[in-house]
Amino acid sequence: MGSRAALRTKHQSPQATAAEAAGLRWLRVEGGPPVPFVHEAVDGRLVIDEIPHGTPNLQAAVTFGRRLAVLHLAGAEAFGAPPPGGPREATIGMAPMINEPAPSWPEWFASQRIRPYAEPAGIDLGEVCERIADLAGPPEPPARLHGDLWSGNVLWGADGQVWLIDPAAHGGHRESDLAMLQLFGCPFLDHVLGAYQEIAPLADGWQARVPLHQLFPLLVHAVLFGGGYRSEALAAARAVLRG
Questions:
Q1: Structural domain total, the chain
Q2: Which of the two ends of the chain, N or C, has the fewest CB atoms closer than 10 A to its terminal CB?
Q3: 3 occurs within a structural domain
């Protein structure tokens, strides 16, 4: 008789538990990156699979890039749409995050991902919001996003696979996940991005739009931690406006 898989128990607010559980279930896409199975999500208690840690390697990175593209292409109901069963009022890390569907990505990103965090961070991003329709690049359909895809939530498993954990899942622009992956570093990043583009090529000019998509995580960090993150957000805004 085989041994049972180890489980991980997290205690957080009922709202955060509901959002994370819904996100993990939604991100479980055939051909996409593996995610921990949700065993229980009641009140503030979340029980999921514990994923043993491994070592980053080139083959896992290439496979991850392809699988991430498959996940994004699975799509979402709308920009800003929460996962099925997920709450409108979710979280990203320790910060509140609203998931409210909107008809277009520029309108949604300005109203729900820039303005709510720019003011408490003490940063004037009015010009970015005014020009965002021109800065956003070609229109794309809503993608199925992890939503908090920094390197700490990309787990290189002992099974040789790259797992996704701790999502802030919602419908959004796929360049946002990729920009966050670049913001805090990821092993074999060039290989991840190259493999991604084999499955889902990015629109021309995507490299120039990276600072635009990085504004949201930088603003969240500026609100939560201040300091250098505020300077980084301002630098990203200047890069966005320079084109």
A1: 1
A2: N
A3: no
Note down pLDDT in tens along the chain; length 243 residues.
Answer: 444 679 999 999 999 999 999 999 999 999 999 999 999 999 999 999 999 999 999 999 999 999 999 999 999 999 999 999 999 999 998 899 999 999 999 999 999 999 999 999 999 999 999 999 999 999 999 999 999 999 999 999 999 999 999 999 999 999 999 999 999 889 999 999 999 999 999 999 999 999 999 999 999 999 999 889 999 999 999 999 997
Q: Is residue 19 part of a domain?
A: no
Q: How far apart are CA 113 and CA 129, in angstroms?
A: 10
Q: Six-digit token pair at 101?
A: 């569907």
Q: Can you count the helices (H) and strands (E) in the chain?
A: 9, 9
DSSP string for residues in 69-84: HHHHHT--SSBTPPPT
User: Is there a domain that residue 213 lies in?
Assistant: yes
Q: In the numeric block, which tokens belong to residue 85? A: 């069963």
What's the rounded Cα separation, in Å, for the pair 162 and 178?
A: 15
Q: Which residues pair with 113 in a beta bridge?
A: none
Q: What is the DSSP letter of 153?
A: G
The two tokens of residue 145 are 């996003």
**Straight-line distance from the first to the last Cα atom of the chain, in angstroms, rounded to the nearest whole number:** 60
Expressed as residue numbers, the domain containing 66 is 52-242
Which residues form the catalytic set? 148
The domain spanning residue 201 has which CATH number? 3.90.1200.10
The amino acid sitting at 158 is: A
Q: How far apart are CA 57 and CA 159, in angstroms?
A: 12
Question: Pairing relation of β-strands 170-172 and 154-156?
Answer: unpaired
Q: Is the pTM of this model over 0.85?
A: yes
